[in-house]
Amino acid sequence: MDLDALAAARHDDWQRLDALARRRRLAGPETDELIERYQAGASDLSLVKSTAGSTALGDRLSISLARARLKFTGAPENPLRQLTRFAWVSLPAALYRLRWITLGVAVATFVIAGLYAWWIGGDPRALAALGSEGELEQLAEEGFVAYYSENPAASFAGMVWTNNAWIAAQCIAFGVLGVWVPWVILQNAQNLGVTAAVMFAYDEADTFFLYIAPHGLLELTCVFVAAAGGLRIFWAWVAPGPRPRGVALAEDARSLFTVAIGLVFFLFVAGLIEGFVTPQPWPWAVKIGIGVLALAAFLAYMLVLGGRARRAGATGDLVEFEAGATRVVAG
């Protein structure tokens, strides 16, 4: 095959391919033309390589084809812009979708915890079943407070963070089973109610609330959100609506995996508060104020920013986030 003859015959076509590939945006007809010329150019390149191997002519055509291919597959976006989109669009939109289920989980948790506290606090036999008089008194008057300061703040914060992040991830991952999330909600509420009952029984109610409030406001809310995510995944499997069950499950799971990633950061903040703020000998107004501010910031992120993102059409799906890494060039 005569490469010079081929280059002369295809010169205008290749030039047009390169010109279209260099344009920042293309109209609909131009996009169709680019696809046609890309296919033709790919055939020419295959012919050149199979006949003459690696040549300068083939290399130039390869560059034009690669540039054209980016128009279809998209060029990688700046990682900082991807991270910004995730933080300000995808994650808050995904959290916003869970707002009502989160509220339901919170109400259920506090109702169950309240019932446990009422039952144990009103029944001396139930209280005695938790431990001896000395053990319970030691827990109420020393152990509960000592828990927050018996380890170095940094290691304690890290331990709390990893434990809570693991629980949140389990809620999302195993939510489809239908039983895991209710079990987590029950265990969480039971622990909260039993501890409250012991503290109340020994007149340490103020200590209980003062030590729980700084970090617990944000920490418990994150757990509620994770549980809500798991329940939503389960419901997508039970009642997929007009979507095929597999599609509904996959779509909601992708969206809620976004939540699992985001909760890692928020639980990290809660862990820092629990490790570095809760045990400090500061005025309680300051410590609880920090917890209230952390919760307020999270709720504003979830409801205000999330509502805005949802109204703009964001779904919170990871696929949507990943799609932001490519540029849409046809219009």
From TrEMBL:
Name of protein: Stage II sporulation protein M
Keywords, in A-Z order: Membrane, Transmembrane, Transmembrane helix
Keyword DNA-binding on entry: no
Transmembrane segments: 100-120, 165-185, 217-235, 256-278, 284-304
PANTHER family: SLR1478 PROTEIN (PTHR35337)
Entry keyword annotation includes Methyltransferase: no
Regions annotated as coiled coil: none
Organism: Agromyces neolithicus
